[in-house]
């Protein structure tokens, strides 16, 4: 498959994630949209890593593994983000009985 298909899919997923973060008020949906943006970046890293591997496969035996290592570390950070983010959302729900992000602005006063 050409790299253009991967780029188009990743850009579409990233734009859906950005639109979801900017338009939604539910904290869980915002959280899922952020994860969608991270997965779009992961898709691009793996696609470019694979393209780079095919370009350098004759000269370097381990070429193209860098993008896959970055994806692994992004997934580890995303897993830590999920655990901390869900804990914050649960504590917010326990205190306010709502997961509406706009409700948090009223807590400042």
N to C succession of SSEs:
HHHH
User: How large is the share of residues in beta strands?
Assistant: under 5%
Our count of domains comes out at 1
Distance between the termini: 55 Å
Major β-sheet profile: none
Instruction: Give the class from helix and strand content and strand pairing.
Output: mainly alpha
Total helix count? Answer: 4
Query: Based on DSSP secondary structure assignment, what is the total number of beta strands?
Result: 0
| C-alpha geometry | elongated
Rounded average pLDDT = 83
- Gyration radius, to the nearest Å? 18 Å
- Classify the helix fraction into a percent range: over 70%
What is the CATH architecture annotation?
Answer: Orthogonal Bundle
- The oligomeric state is single chain
CATH fold topology: Helix Hairpins
Would you give an account of this structure?
By secondary structure, the protein is mostly helical. The protein has one domain: Helix Hairpins (Orthogonal Bundle), CATH 1.10.287.3510. 79% of the residues lie in helices and 0% in strands. The protein has four helices and no strands. The chain starts with a helix and ends with a helix.
